[in-house]
Design goal:
- The chain is of the alpha/beta class and 270 residues long.
- It has helices at residues 49-57, 96-100, 102-106, 111-121, 140-152, 170-187, 198-204, 238-254, 259-265; strands spanning 7-18, 21-33, 38-42, 64-69, 72-73, 81-84, 158-162, 190-195, 207-211, 218-223.
- It folds into 2 domains: 7-80 and 156-265, P-loop containing nucleotide triphosphate hydrolases (Rossmann fold, 3-Layer(aba) Sandwich), CATH 3.40.50.300; 91-155, no CATH class.
- The strands form 2 sheets. A 6-stranded mixed sheet has the order 6-7-8-3-9-10, sandwiched between helices. A 4-stranded antiparallel sheet has the order 2-1-4-5, covered by helices on one side.
- The chain starts with 6 loop residues before the first strand and ends in a 5-residue tail after the last helix.
- It binds adenosine-5'-triphosphate (ATP) and magnesium ion.
Length: 270
């Protein structure tokens, strides 16, 4: 198999300036992801996670630092990264089928070819029979699967999934986690996956990155050496609970509540 793209984020910082208000979203963020790796990212709200994804897709540029994909600086038109944004952004006036072919359509693939491929993939995404349904007639889980299918059909080697299961109930979430692992295994994509859920972060990942409260920095990298394929049994394992505890601790130490106090007492604190 040929060498697949890998992501290198090098010393990236990003500050937003709006109406005189200055918000530093990310500070000196560095990490890499190997081809085919499943990396989850967890951190408090407002810590720059979605910003990081916008930088990796080339939608936004970093102030300092650089991002390489497959050894080359990222550009908006690199065509290697598919993003599933935090809000599903399904177009209410388009059917499921016409929503999921948006990516290929924008890439100039003929509508006919795009539809054919989308129809093939519908059953795998649990959407068979719903091709002509409109988004607001779908369940929450189906909407998320449709949004995932749309990202998937962009046919990129790298998928950035921004809290794809955030709005779902625990049972649906569990089902979709298992299903996503299956898809990932079959198609060997490189996945970066943002979540607020500690258990989800560990269960899915080869590696977890913990990002601190704003400005976001990577404060911990945790390798998850649990065997695959993972199942519901994996969720009961002591190893998983131990990793979860480690993550929780890193989040508590670097979370929003303790950050200002720590800065006052220890200006040089890490
Ligand atoms: N386009 C923008 N203009 C100005 N400020 C922005 C912009 N995008 C993000 N920010 C600010 O940058 C910070 C980080 O935002 P971001 O959306 O990346 O956080 P997040 O970690 O994804 O949060 P959440 O977990 O709530 O989704 C926030 O303070 C946000 O207000
Ligand atoms: Mg976000």
């Amino acid at each position: 198999m040929s060498e697949r793209p890998c992501i290198e984020v090098r010393a990236v910082s990003k500050t937003f300036r709006n109406d005189g208000r200055v918000v530093q979203a990310l500070a000196d963020v560095s990490f890499t992801a190997r081809s085919g790796e499943f990396v989850t990212i967890i951190g408090p709200s407002g810590s720059g996670k979605s910003t990081l994804f916008n930088l990796i897709t080339g939608l936004t540029e970093p102030d300092t630092g650089e991002i390489l994909i497959d050894g080359r600086p990222v550009r908006r038109d690199t065509g290697l990264v598919g993003l599933m944004p935090q809000r599903d952004l399904l177009l209410p006036w388009r059917t499921v089928l016409n929503n999921v072919i948006l990516g290929p359509e924008l890439d100039g693939v003929s509508k006919r070819a795009a539809r054919r491929r989308a129809r093939e993939m519908m059953p795998l995404f649990g959407l068979a029979g719903f091709e002509n349904a409109y988004p607001d007639t779908l369940s929450g889980g189906m909407r998320q699967r449709a949004a995932l299918l749309r990202t998937f059909l962009t046919d990129r080697d790298i998928l950035l999934l921004d809290e794809p299961f955030g709005p779902l109930d625990a049972l649906t979430r569990r089902e979709l986690q298992r299903w996503l692992l299956d898809i990932w295994h079959r198609f060997r994509k490189t996945i970066l996956f943002i979540t607020h859920d500690v258990e989800e972060a560990v269960y899915l990942a080869d590696r977890v990155l913990v990002i601190s409260a704003r400005p976001g920095r990577i404060v911990k990298e945790l390798t998850v050496d649990l065997p695959r394929p993972r199942s519901s049994i994996s969720l009961l394992s002591e190893d998983l609970r131990r990793l979860e505890a480690e993550l929780l601790e890193a989040l508590e130490v670097n979370g929003p509540a303790s950050a200002p106090a720590r800065d006052e007492r220890n200006p040089n604190g890490s």
